[in-house]
């Protein structure tokens, strides 16, 4: 890590009047009091002839009506140096073809279209085309192993899966018997399969016409299903509606300050909500040029993208920022980054050092912002024109009321007005991109709300000036390199191995990726702990779960600490791993010792 910046200041003072172009949000308080969601809805067009609100129309087709057809919508930079520019008009035609292809396959509105692939142009066409067809789109992370893919496709009743021929062979083909509802697979590349329901992307799109009229779409119609992890049980399928685009548009303006001439780059993958809300919907609804980089993180390659693509607004994440910090600001020497004017970060706590390092390395701070899969869009942000207190997530978006609350004994919540008191972060309902449910789990969904409040599950505090500070998560879910990982999903995969009797999984703090996944395992009798079994278990988990989810470390234990009801006490495993106080042990039934 580079030395701690000498000037770790309490506040970075902004001079909004000197900024060019003028920020969309110049005066925070005035904007908040004048704001209404109805007014923000007017930034979108709606379907022609009063046909409702469809995200794909707002993100693509409407720009043709405003003379932006020839403008580059997506600039794609491939892994091996290829480049592809797709104008808004080309994107409109390609998504029309895909929507027609779905209709040709008999896929109906409301049915679910899963997309499993790396950041290829086809991913963007498939998601937007599915939205035109009024299907529900679900992008899945391509680094998931077969198990997370099967769980999600099963839960979500995937009707269509769009993937690459390679991913199909490696991860999906063997799962087909678990997915009886999956009627069509569309593969990019050489199909390499003679199964009648496996279609080639190229032939399917070539034989579809490029004219399509989006059918009537209600703002409350389901558009996206995004899975997120909880502490227990299977992942949660957060459901979002077409009307969410109002929040994407509002946050694009206020939190990311997108102007039409911007060249925008969101580094997140659409398999995670940031890569969908801000890697597809928000930038395209704003009519900017959206840069998509297929390759994974590499500091020099990223600097080269910033310089050569003349990125003006950049949305990235703390893990990447910390990796760049490790290399030091000298790695940026000689780069012309004169186009860059705004940098934002999301997904995990951004250390004050990271914010300040932005100033040293790029001449501007990183602006941290906070939100969740469930909130659909940015809720709390450091705005371009507002002073930054490094380490703070910033202030609520205009239109959003946040509070710090405590859950009462009798089921209500009590709002804490005093500054700098820890409590649960809550948001006043509703807002346009708020999830409309967890798929098939009404009870789990209802538990997120008390009265008019949505309870986020995150612990935070607010200071006297209204800035919010992240304190920690209220549950056992792990955030590793910005990706939410459910301990239960990892434990279940480990338990499938014949040697494993019990498994408990925690997030172990890590200076770069935030947390690494660490598993504690108790073996069945007849198995001996040792290096070769450890390696075998790591390999097993990696094969089942994929590299993004699998544990990086495994420790053996004779027993795991459990509550009276038999639940493994992850909190205690974590406290012991970190040498922290063990806390309240009144529910502890059996212990590892
Ligand atoms: C957008 C996204 C949500 C959880 C959230 C919180 C953590 C997100 C953060 C942050 C500290 C920030 N989180 N942004 N923690 N500071 N600026 O990441 O959605 O994958 O659902 O994760 O991530 O714990 O509750 P998701």
Secondary-structure topology with pairs:
Layout: H1 28-34, H2 37-41, H3 55-65, E1 72-77, E2 83-87, H4 88-104, E3 112-116, H5 121-132, E4 136-140, H6 146-155, E5 158-164, H7 165-172, E6 184-188, E7 198-200, H8 201-206, E8 222-228, E9 236-241, H9 245-254, E10 263-266, H10 273-285, E11 289-293, H11 299-308, E12 313-316, H12 318-327, E13 342-345, H13 352-362, E14 366-370, E15 380-381, E16 395-396, E17 402-407, E18 413-415, E19 423-428, E20 437-438, H14 442-446, E21 449-450, E22 453-462, E23 468-473, E24 478-480, E25 483-485, H15 487-495, E26 500-510, E27 514-523, H16 531-545, E28 553-556, E29 562-563, H17 570-578, E30 588-590
Parallel strand pairs: 1-11, 3-4, 3-5, 5-6, 6-7, 10-11, 10-12, 12-13, 13-14, 27-28
Antiparallel strand pairs: 1-2, 8-9, 9-20, 14-15, 15-16, 17-18, 17-19, 19-22, 21-22, 22-23, 24-25, 26-27, 29-30
Helix pairs in contact: 3-4, 3-5, 3-10, 4-5, 9-10
């Amino acid at each position: 890590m580079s030395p701690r910046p000498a000037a770790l200041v309490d506040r970075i003072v902004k001079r909004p009047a000197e900024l060019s172009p003028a920020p969309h949000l110049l005066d925070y308080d005035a904007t908040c009091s004048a704001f209404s969601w109805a007014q923000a809805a007017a930034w979108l067009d709606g379907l022609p002839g009063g046909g409702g609100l469809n995200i794909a129309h707002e993100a693509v087709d409407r720009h043709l009506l405003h003379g932006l057809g020839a403008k580059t919508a997506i600039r794609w930079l491939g892994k091996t140096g290829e480049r592809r520019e797709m104008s808004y008009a080309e994107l409109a035609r390609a998504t029309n073809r895909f929507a027609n292809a779905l209709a040709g396959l008999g896929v109906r509105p409301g049915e679910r279209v899963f997309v499993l692939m790396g950041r290829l142009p086809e991913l963007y066409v498939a998601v937007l085309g599915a939205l035109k067809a009024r299907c529900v789109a679900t992008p899945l992370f391509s680094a998931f192993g077969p198990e997370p893919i099967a769980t999600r496709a099963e839960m979500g009743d995937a009707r269509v899966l769009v993937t690459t021929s390679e991913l199909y062979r490696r991860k999906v083909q063997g799962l087909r018997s678990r997915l009886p509802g999956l009627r069509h697979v569309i593969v990019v590349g050489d199909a390499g399969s003679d199964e009648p329901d496996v279609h080639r992307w190229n032939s399917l799109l070539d034989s579809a016409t490029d004219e399509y009229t989006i059918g009537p779409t209600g703002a409350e119609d389901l558009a996206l299903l995004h899975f997120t992890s909880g502490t227990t049980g299977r992942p949660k399928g957060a459901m979002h509606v077409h009307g969410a685009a109002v929040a994407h548009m509002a946050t694009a303006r206020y939190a990311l300050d997108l102007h039409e001439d911007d060249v925008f780059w969101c580094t997140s993958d659409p398999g995670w909500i940031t890569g969908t809300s801000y890697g597809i919907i928000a930038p395209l609804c704003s009519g900017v040029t959206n840069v998509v980089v297929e390759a994974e993180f590499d500091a020099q390659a990223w600097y080269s993208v910033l310089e050569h693509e003349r990125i003006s607004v950049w949305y990235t994440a703390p893990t990447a920022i910390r990796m760049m910090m490790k290399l030091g600001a000298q790695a940026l020497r000689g780069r012309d980054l004169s186009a860059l004017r705004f940098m934002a970060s999301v997904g995990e706590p951004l250390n004050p050092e990271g914010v300040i390092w932005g100033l040293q390395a790029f001449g501007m701070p990183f602006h941290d912002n906070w939100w969740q899969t469930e909130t659909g869009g940015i809720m709390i942000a450091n705005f371009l024109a507002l002073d930054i207190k490094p380490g703070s997530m910033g202030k609520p978006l205009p239109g959003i009321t946040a509070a710090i609350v405590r859950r009462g004994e009798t089921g209500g919540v009590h709002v804490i007005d005093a500054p700098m008191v820890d409590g649960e972060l809550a948001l006043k309902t509703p807002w346009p991109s708020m999830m409309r449910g967890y798929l098939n789990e009404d009870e789990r969904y209802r538990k997120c709300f008390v009265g008019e409040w949505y309870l986020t599950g995150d612990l935070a505090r607010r200071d006297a000036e209204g800035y919010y500070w992240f304190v920690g998560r209220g549950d056992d879910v792990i955030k590793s390199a910005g990706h939410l990982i459910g301990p239960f999903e990892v434990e279940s995969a480990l338990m499938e191995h014949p040697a494993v009797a019990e498994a408990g999984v925690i997030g172990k703090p890590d200076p770069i990726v935030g947390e690494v996944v660490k598993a504690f395992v108790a073996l069945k009798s007849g198995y001996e702990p040792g290096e070769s079994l450890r390696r075998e278990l790591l390999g097993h988990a990696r094969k089942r779960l994929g590299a993004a989810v699998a544990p990086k470390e495994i420790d053996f234990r004779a027993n795991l600490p459990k509550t009276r009801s038999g639940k493994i006490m992850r909190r205690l495993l974590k406290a012991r791993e970190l040498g922290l106080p063990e806390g309240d042990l009144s529910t502890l039934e059996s212990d590892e010792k």
